[in-house]
Amino acid sequence: MIARWWRGWTASRETTEAYEELLRTTIFPTVRSHDGCRGTYLFRRDLDGGGAEFATLTLWESWDAVRGFAGDDHEVAVVPKAARAVLERFDDRSTHYEVVESPGDY
Q: For residues 102 and 106, what is the distance between their CA atoms, to the nearest angstrom?
């Protein structure tokens, strides 16, 4: 199992709410439709001024599944145009970890 970690930041309350809604209704369902996706997690930390830091963790059954989602340069961030329109900034690259222990079977 491979864990893929990525972060993005919004600048206002409006873009924070818009980005979270976009993730829930469009981006995460699309990610989950890829072969080998084993789950998606969303983390949010509100910042002073109304913006927020978002972190996403996606789980993949193999390196091939990660590449099937992200391409040959699997560390490049996959950020749709709609997300780019509301994010103030974001990580250009994702970080990957091999899952060596989890709370249950995966």
A: 8
Q: What is the DSSP letter of 75?
A: T
The CB-based long-range contact list for 32-39 (8 Å cut-off, 24+ gap) reads 34/65, 34/68, 34/69, 35/65, 35/68, 36/60, 36/61, 36/62, 36/64, 36/65, 36/66, 36/68, 36/69, 37/61, 37/65, 37/69, 38/1, 38/106
pTM of the model as a whole: 0.91
Which tens digits make up the pLDDT trace of 41-75? 999 999 998 999 999 999 999 999 999 999 999 99
With H, G, I as helix, E, B as strand and everything else as coil, classify residue 74: coil
Question: Pairing relation of β-strands 2-10 and 52-60?
Answer: antiparallel
How far is Cα of residue 5 from the mean position of the Cα atoms in its chain? 7
